[in-house]
Specification:
Length: about 475
């Protein structure tokens, strides 16, 4: 091992021994943990240190002395640049191993609770083209390779793709993304080529000006396609011509929408989204249940695996025909409507009013008449008088955001004392914290990790609890 004495020292010939959080690799030097980008266990690498703290360091693998026997070739030519799909160099079986281990370790180490043996992690049937939604950014300062920088005067600087990690104004221009099925790539590339040919400006992320700003493409298993183009300027003639020509080029687009976004950030949640042609929604289907998805609706981005996730929830719930179910953090009511036909009634609660309206519509279009949905902050809505009015639940299903449940919600769940509690989480660390608070009253009887996002470190966890 050698050390370079520059501002960013280099550790030479270090073996990577494990994986860590957020898709990083891990090694240990002089009793200090080093988190490493760009490596997998078994690699022997030189590490350029980018951050030093008393108990750990962070760095990037800049030179490989030996590649791990587990390493596989990444499927995507943008791997390592765009920042997504960081685990492409790990075999899928290894990805599943590390995800399953993370869930178990978090529940044991952070939750400090008694656990049964986990059910095997539920793998994703599709490992490419599994996403039903992607968001792209237009930029007039796309990311250039070192070779392109040498010839930058002759290089087209406009592009559309994904942000470079840590560089808000740089975008890697994408020709072929492996995450979303056709015609996602074709639509994005067509808009880029059209804009270059017709002089439509790409957004300047520093100056906050330009015509083409962001693009959202949603594809459904039903064949429906939604395209939302966000423009940084309100030039009606340019907008209408581009969208007219896009619709002519891709008549299979069933919902073509746009927004005029002149504020500082790219988010469209607070923007008015206007319909250009088609319908203002697309339809998704799951076990014969149809879900109406608007431009701002939340829907699990891996449609096929979402169905498997909900099946696992339903299996853990083991519903009876007379059961009252509470679905907390119900979103657009996907779980609520998915389980409604197996029980007496489902009560759904969600913070976002627009999502609750979607949930009600999804019940109506499926002729599901035993659901009730309420909008409001969970800790304010879920009170004992509410439960008295709408019925004591036999089963409670919770699927909170990454931050987990508010302590007041946990306290209310303890007071409600539903016989069965099913906890779905995209963050097993906060899930473990909440389970620890529940442990005196509820026992974990089963749990299962679910892989929703192959080639990333993200993993869902479904835990089944029974009242002690």
């Amino acid at each position: 091992m050698g050390r370079n004495k520059k501002d960013k020292p280099v550790l030479v010939g270090i073996e990577i021994t494990d994986v860590a959080a957020e898709g990083k690799a891990l090694c240990r030097i002089d009793d200090k943990v080093v988190f490493v980008n760009g490596a997998v266990p078994g690699d022997i690498v030189d590490i350029q240190i980018t951050r030093k703290r008393s108990s750990f360091m962070e760095g990037n693998a800049i030179n490989f002395h030996k590649y791990s026997e587990d390493r596989v070739a990444p499927m995507c030519k943008y791997f390592g640049t765009c920042g997504g799909c960081k685990w492409q160099t790990l075999p899928y079986e290894k990805q599943l191993f590390y995800k399953e281990r993370e869930v178990t370790q978090n529940l044991k180490r952070l939750g400090k609770i008694e656990l049964p043996k986990p059910l095997p992690i539920l793998a994703s049937a599709n490992r490419e083209y599994y996403r039903n939604k992607l968001e792209y950014t237009f930029s007039n300062r796309r990311w250039l390779t070192e070779e392109e920088i040498k010839n930058s005067d002759a290089i087209e600087r406009n592009g559309v793709g994904f942000h470079i990690p840590g560089l808000f104004d740089k975008v890697v221009d994408i020709d072929d993304c492996h995450l979303q099925q056709s015609p996602s790539n074709e639509i994005r590339n067509w808009i880029r080529d059209y804009a270059l040919k017709n002089g439509v400006t790409f957004y300047d992320l520093r100056a906050q000006q330009g015509m083409l700003r962001t693009l959202v493409i949603r594809t459904a298993s039903t064949g429906d396609i939604m395209v939302i183009v966000a423009f940084g300027e309100d030039n009606k003639a340019t907008i209408n011509q581009l969208l007219d020509d896009l619709k002519a080029a891709f008549p299979q687009i069933t919902s073509l929408m746009y927004a005029i976004n002149t504020k500082v950030n790219d988010s469209l949640t607070d923007q008015t989204i206007l319909l250009h042609s088609g319908q203002d929604y697309i339809m998704e289907e799951m076990e014969g249940i149809h879900f109406k998805i608007g431009p701002k609706s939340f829907y699990q981005t891996n449609s096929l695996q979402a169905c498997e996730l909900y099946k696992q929830v339903r299996e853990f719930a083991d519903l009876g025909i007379n059961d009252v179910v509470y679905d907390l953090y119900t979103g657009t009511g996907t779980i609520a409507n998915f389980v409604a036909r197996r029980c007496k009634k489902v009560v759904g609660i969600e913070y976002v009013p627009e999502a609750i309206e979607d949930a009600k519509v999804n019940s109506q279009i499926n002729d599901i008449n035993n659901t009730e949905f309420f909008a409001g902050d969970m800790k304010d809505v879920l009170k004992l008088d509410f439960i008295s009015q709408y019925g004591k639940p036999d089963v409670v299903i919770v699927d909170p955001p990454r931050a987990g449940m508010h302590p007041d919600v946990v306290e209310t769940l303890i007071k409600v004392s539903a016989p069965k509690l099913i906890y779905v989480s995209c963050n097993s660390a906060t899930q473990a914290r909440d389970l620890q608070m529940l442990d005196k009253y509820y026992k974990v009887v089963a749990y299962r990790p679910v892989d929703m996002f192959p080639h990333t470190h993200h993993v869902e966890s479904v835990v089944s609890l029974r009242l002690r």
